[in-house]
């Protein structure tokens, strides 16, 4: 899998409740509405979420299922 480039957003005040930890975990991103699946990579994790990069970013508010190798379905 080629290294996808993260989308750049303006830096804002950090309002997250949980500290993020950098990781590099391979997975699959499934979009049920489109019945499509693509490889992805989890680049950081926190108790409240994950940052995922992939080649074809789904639109905001799209329901997705994340499968992380060795961890399961989220």
State the end-to-end distance.
21 Å
Let me know the average pLDDT: 86
- Quickly count the helices: 0
Can you summarize the main beta sheet? 5 strands, antiparallel
The total of beta strands comes to: 5
Summed up:
0% of the residues lie in helices and 46% in strands.
Q: Which helices and strands appear, and what pairs or packs with what?
A:
Blueprint: E1 21-31, E2 36-46, E3 49-54, E4 65-68, E5 72-73
Antiparallel strand pairs: 1-2, 1-4, 2-3, 4-5
Core attributes:
five-stranded antiparallel sheet; 46% strand; globular; mainly beta; 74 residues
Give a structural overview.
- It is a single chain.
- The chain has no helices and 5 strands.
- The chain has 74 residues and is an all-beta fold.
- The chain has a 5-stranded antiparallel beta sheet with strand order 3-2-1-4-5, with no helix packed on it.
- A hairpin with a 3-residue loop joins strand 4 (65-68) and strand 5.
- The two termini are 21 Å apart.
